[in-house]
Amino acid sequence: MSNQDVYDVVLVGTGAGGGMMAHFLATHGVKVLNLEYGAPVPTEDLGSFEMFHQAFARMPYAELQKALYEPGPESWKRSKYFIYQNECDYKTAGEGWYWRRYRNVGGRTTWWAGVSPRLSPLDFRAGSTDGFGPDWPLTYEDLEPYYDWIDINLGNAGPSMGHPDCPKGIYHKPAPLRCGERVLQDAVYGKLTREFPLMQCEPIRKMIATEEMGPGRSPCYYHGACWEGCAVGARFDAAQHLIAPALRLPNYTLRQNAVVAEVLADKNTGKAKGVRYVDRLTKQSYEAYGKVVVLAASAIETARILLNSKSTLYPSGIANGKGQVGKHLCEQIRCLADGYLPQLYGMKSHNDDGYGGNIYMPRFTRTYQQKAGFIRGYEVRAGSGKGINGGVASFGKDLKAGIKEHYQAHLFLEAFGEKLDNPGTYVEIDPSGAVDSYGIPIVKIHSALHENDRKIFGDMQEKMQILLEATGAKNIQIDQVPPTPGISEHEVGTCRMGDDPKESVCNSFGQTHQVKNLFIADGGFFTQATEKSPTITILALARRGADYLVEELRRGSLQA
Amino acid sequence: MNDRKKVLEEKAESSRRLEDRRRALKQIGALSGLCALDLLCGPELKAAVIDLVEISHPKQARLQPTTAEMEYRPLATGTVPKSFTRGDLDLLGDLVELIIPTTDTPGARAAGVHWYIDAVAEVNTQVRQSFSEGLAWLRERSQQHFDKPFGVVTESQRVELLTHMSRLPATDPGKQFFELAKQWTLDGYYKSQIGLLQELGWVGHEYLPSFPGCPHPDPSHRRKGAAGRFLQEQDA
User: Fold this and answer.
1) Residue A332's pLDDT is what?
2) Which of B1, B69, B219 sits opposite A49 (nearest CB)?
3) Are B103 and B191 found together in one domain?
4) B161 CB-near residues (< 8 Å, 6+ apart)
5) Choosing among B25, B45, B50, which should be mutated to test the A contact, i.e. which has the most A CBs within 10 A?
6) Do residues A345 and A405 make contact, with C-beta atoms less than 8 angstroms apart?
7) Deepest in the core among A320, A560, B30, B34, taking most CB within 10 A?
């Protein structure tokens, strides 16, 4: 294929945002070139056959250790698809940043747990409600049809809850709760809802098909570890459910192993005319041209591409006229807690793999947070099942017997809180001028904790204790310090959307304010992080952006 | 587009469409396979995408775990330790067996946990150093307390020394080594064939057409006979 082909759209990335864009554009007759850093994941690497502990019981140990603790190039299954620092380095400042990047068709959606809460109408107006930051440039009503489209076409299991933070969806039936999860639910409704009226404890919403969906989808077989990839395609994966159908169309081209370096701009019109990318295997540089360029490379990577796209027209990077690209990086703060339920001691070992933790407790902080002195809030996910309780005795026979007795009685909780955007948390191109193995300048990620983040973390710790005590759990352990920033893998906000071009990079369709034929379609366009997992909202926003883009292409308003 | 009723109708419509498409694809599939994929991408990519033609349930047969996947290997054992001296490895074997002893099921030594730690230490220099130092500490203390190497002192003397270690203040190197050894012993033992299958009786790794969830009538699980030890008694 000649490099001089001009596509309608050059699209970077195949994850939630890129996959959705690719699928929708291709099925609407748009000629798309889709560039992906990595390669497809063969089915045998999608490991829903085994949980970690099984793998441990049969794999060579040194290799598994490498895979889990010191990821190396030859390690196991999903770590094969990590981008390692010797290939593409990044630097950090402040609190540090854990940046896990995937190089595979499907991006992170191949490896996610599937948790899919919609943003609520309140989230879109959070800024004007509490005075922190701008509102989203769209409302829940604007996005609702797209959420519905996702529920219907991509599959989503869960309950429709009557809760201000849980808009109703069109869901498959969720899996029933496990023993420990019912203990928690019973404790919440029996003891805590009087004090916390917004506290609810229901099955989690996950993008998992539990009912028949048609070709290419198998209903869930309750085989555990969704985050190791789903070989039967029950859990949503952009590669299987968005990219694969697009590949059948002649107007869609996928180029793998393409590391995008910069967006190319036309000197005369100032419009984007394509991208320059480096082939991962040959390290040779290529250019690809399109009438429209869409970046969906993940929040930080997209900011990096924009900032690296310097020219006389755009000296500080394309779409960065107001210096907003890379700012407003935000994510979620996590607090883990666990304990063992005496009611379940001695329960016989049984298969409770299911599809991971199955409890979701939406944000219940709204009723008291003003008094507690923080804004925004957090959600709690929980699950129960097997656990090794080393705290049960010191050593010897007692330890061995105690661990066996506690084995089925484990209850764990995971709180995710909104981290506020703050001036100390942003992405820039590393000022030292360092480059990665493709000769592309690397990023430096600055991070700082906002005072509000610390308060949220403190409140999480307190409420985790209350929740676990209400269940009667023993051997309670709760995170004592906030985790390394970035660990949530929910980073968003580097190219945020807004109505005011001075304060934002793109509009609510992902179209950049400065360059009309350049679009953002990943978590970068989030206005705020919220406490909810971002994937389903990235999908909905990308689907809405694609709708708009197809219409604009038809009208011819974007062409140079 | 905002009309939810319309959306729900669409849902019904789309499932009808899927039904039609499935029937159509079944016919096309028999004739042409995945020709579009053949043209557009190499074999590598084809392997990655789920077979679009196939309807859902036959996957179950194709994706059943193979015998190799179901097979559990004992912990790696070798004739030559990779990280420790032969003497250190034996000492480590004694130590892990003290932490998880043989009862009605085999203990940590039989599960090869000391070999596991040896393999971990090969790739993790910090583990290697901590264990080498800790084992030296243990040797020295055994000489001090009993005037004999750890390998030949009696069982009760070993337990006495380990109990002493476990009660030292958190900053003491003896206590730190105790915690480290315990952590890695539990890690190795309960991921081994013996620990996971024989001792804990782990079950999983099965296809379930539906997830049963909790079968007990009492959600709090506090009433007698609801679950827990009572359930096991009932079963017995």
Assistant:
1) 96
2) B69
3) yes
4) B138, B141, B142, B145, B146, B150, B153
5) B50
6) yes
7) A320
Q: What percent of chain A has pLDDT over 70?
A: 93
Å from B198 to nearest chain A CA?
11
pLDDT of residue B12: 52
Give the CA radius of gyration of chain A: 23
Tell me whether residues A177 and B22 touch, CB distance under 8 A.
no
Among all residues of chain A, which has the CA nearest to that of B105?
A400
Based on the structure, what is the number of domains in chain B? 2
CB contact under 8 A, A351 and B199: no
Contacts of A23 in chain B (CB under 8 A): none
Which residues span the domain enclosing A473? 162-227+332-418+450-484
Residue of A27, A247, A355 to mutate for B, most B C-beta atoms under 10 A: A247
Prediction ipTM score: 0.80
Co-location of B107 and B38 in the same domain: no
User: What does the pLDDT look like over B85-139, one tens digit per residue?
Assistant: 999 999 999 999 999 999 999 999 988 888 888 877 877 788 999 999 999 999 9
At A12, is the secondary structure helix, strand, or coil? strand
**pTM for the model:** 0.86
Is B103 inside a domain boundary? yes
Q: Tell me: do B175 and B111 sit in the same domain.
A: yes
Closest CA to A434 of A304, A548, A313: A304
- Calculate the average pLDDT of chain A: 91
CA A504 to CA A557: how far, in whole Å?
22
Residues of B in contact with A222 (CB under 8 A): 208, 210-211
Per-residue tokens: A518: 């350049």
Residue A13 is assigned to a structural domain of this protein: no
CATH of residue A169's domain is 3.30.410
37-76 of B, contacting A, C-beta below 8 A: 37, 40-41, 44-45, 47-57, 59-60, 63, 65, 69, 71-73, 75-76
Do residue B119 and residue B156 come from a single domain? Answer: yes
| Nearest neighbour of B7 by CB, restricted to A145, A212, A252 | A145
3-state secondary structure of A92: strand
Q: How many domains does chain A have?
A: 1
The contacts found for A193-197 with CB under 8 angstroms, 24 or more apart, are A196/A364, A196/A367, A196/A368, A197/A367
User: Chain-centre distance of CA A233, in angstroms?
Assistant: 18
Structure tokens at A77: 């299954």
Q: No. of H helices and E strands in chain A?
A: 14, 16
Subunit contact B232:A347, Cβ cutoff 8 A: yes
Which of B15, B72, B209 is facing A57, going by the closest CB pair? B72
Residue A529 is assigned to a structural domain of this protein: no
Tokens at B8, concatenated: 């729900």
Q: Are residues B195 and B90 in the same domain?
A: yes
Domain span at B148? 86-199
Let me know: does A505 contact A497? Beta carbons within 8 Å: yes
End-to-end CA distance of chain B: 59
In this model, does residue B182 exceed pLDDT 50? yes
CA A495 to chain B, closest CA, distance in angstroms equals 28
Q: How far is A185 from chain B (nearest CA, A)?
A: 8
Q: Which of these, B74, B72, B54, lies nearest to B62 by C-alpha position? A: B54
pLDDT of residue A70: 37
